[in-house]
Amino acid sequence: MLDFRQASDVRTRIDLMADILWVEDQTHWIDRFRPTLEAEAFDQRPTRLTVFRFAAAACQHIRQPGSAPPDLVLLDAQMSGDDEAGFSVFRALRKRWPEVPVIYLSEYSGTGIEEQAFEQTEARDFIAKHQPNIEQVLCWRIRAALRQSQQPGEQSQLQQGPLRIDTETWEIWWNGSKLMNPANPQRPLGPTPRKILRYLVEASPRPLTTDQIAAHLQADPDRFSWASYRQHIRTLRHSLDQAAGGNGRFMTLCQQGEGLVTFGDEGAYCWRPVSPQQEDTQG
């Protein structure tokens, strides 16, 4: 039986650990990533990893009275053929611990599952399992998510003139108007155009080529072509124009060398900040 001082020491050791809850149904992924995650010291703290192979078991743990919130949750979106399994865990998490950051670790990047993760569950991140150096990428992204959760409000907004990007939810506003799907203004703008705009703003004034954007998106470079990039830019321009009040005002801005600008003949685009004189006309 532990005395008070021993119990206090145990609690202190637990508090000094990075507590990660992971929901994953496939054993080979658990066997592959567990050694890396348990060996990594996130934020200078050793890691305690709790793994659930079934969504129902994870939900039961989350709802159990007395269970403590983890520092971060890794979720497989699709489990045992059920596209809703990971999302059911997310709903349980949000009801019990709304502040805990959630990262999806999935084989279904670039699909409707990724779109649902960002549009309906406000995921912190979505990581493709099948990519080079996945173990390193996973650790980088976990560390970044933990940093953000420990420093709420710091650098969660990316602002350039009338453009504002929430780097946690990936939502984007132009002069206070949220960017929506230009083909259906009742629906949010899709995740891929939003990601592209953020990457362009972060790289500004440097342009990003098709290959560079594909790398940022973790997309197959053989499938993500210049035509794909161009179509997403077109969607962004129409969405921004819609938020600016329509009538082609943002399109004109781009033609004048501000906003989303075509760069040379290399299949590249860049973001050029809007001048203060133009800001007054874009709202």
What does this structure look like?
It is a single chain. With about 280 residues, the protein is α/β, with parallel strands linked by helices. The N terminus and C terminus are likely disordered. The longest helix is centred in the C-terminal third of the chain and has 18 residues. The chain folds into two domains: about 150 residues, Rossmann fold (3-Layer(aba) Sandwich), CATH 3.40.50; about 120 residues, Arc Repressor Mutant, subunit A. The chain has a five-stranded parallel beta sheet, with helices on both faces. A four-stranded antiparallel beta sheet has the order 6-7-8-9, with helices on one face.
Structure in a nutshell:
This protein has 283 residues and is an alpha/beta fold. It has helices at 4-15, 27-39, 55-63, 85-96, 112-121, 134-150, 191-203, 210-217, 226-243, 249-255, 276-279; strands at residues 18-23, 47-52, 72-75, 102-106, 125-128, 157-160, 163-166, 172-174, 177-178, 180-181, 184-188, 208-209, 259-263, 268-272. Helix content is 43%, strand content 20%.
